[in-house]
Prior knowledge:
The chain is mainly α. The protein has one domain. It has six helices and no strands. It has helices spanning 2-23, 28-44, 48-55, 57-60, 63-81, 85-111. α5 packs antiparallel against α6 (85-111). The longest helix has 27 residues, at 85-111.
Amino acid sequence: MDYIRAFLVGGSICVVGQILMDKTKLTPARILVSFVTLGVILGALNIYGYLVDIGGAGATVPLPGFGYSLAKATIKEVNSKGLLGAFTGGAKGSAGGVTAAIIFGYIMSLIFNSKTKD
Length: 118
């Protein structure tokens, strides 16, 4: 059942993104920024946590989940370190995911022959 809920929640987020690309003049970059910002706002208001409880990885893997993890880590740091935590919390909370993306991207570039678009 966890897989079905993750699929439904993550798929719904992706469907919203696809509809925004198809039916509006928003660029994919603006949609990306909007999703991350929405995740931060909903995470700060403690609303996105309910979606994570229902959807698990379906809610944490897409872009709003990245924003949620930034907000969650920043709130934790502010509560423990004060105002300085507002500057360090997001970096600490997202460091693992960003590092993994860089490392795996580098490994894939070594394995496959990457080319620029013409």
